[in-house]
Design brief:
alpha+beta; 3 helices; 51% helix
């Protein structure tokens, strides 16, 4: 990870279905079905998953879209 990079982290919220999370990750983050399923499983099992790393400005755009989809997301 580069020094200025941040992480976009998805958290388990216990109210979104697997299908909703998977579809949101594919639509908003550009993940394929396998990447989206793996992230959904990681969130379910561990409580969180790093979706992307990069500059804050880039991640912020994704964060707002994911929040609009009602996912629990944070930049760290």
């Amino acid at each position: 990870m580069k020094p200025n990079n941040k992480k976009l982290v998805l958290f388990n919220d216990n109210h979104n279905s697997f299908d909703k999370v998977i579809n949101s990750l594919m639509k908003i983050c550009g993940f394929n079905i396998y990447q989206a399923e793996q992230c959904a499983l990681l969130v379910h099992q561990t409580g969180k998953c790093v979706l992307k790393e990069g500059k804050y400005e880039y991640l912020e755009k994704l964060m707002f879209k994911l929040k609009k989809a009602n996912l629990t997301i944070q930049i760290m």
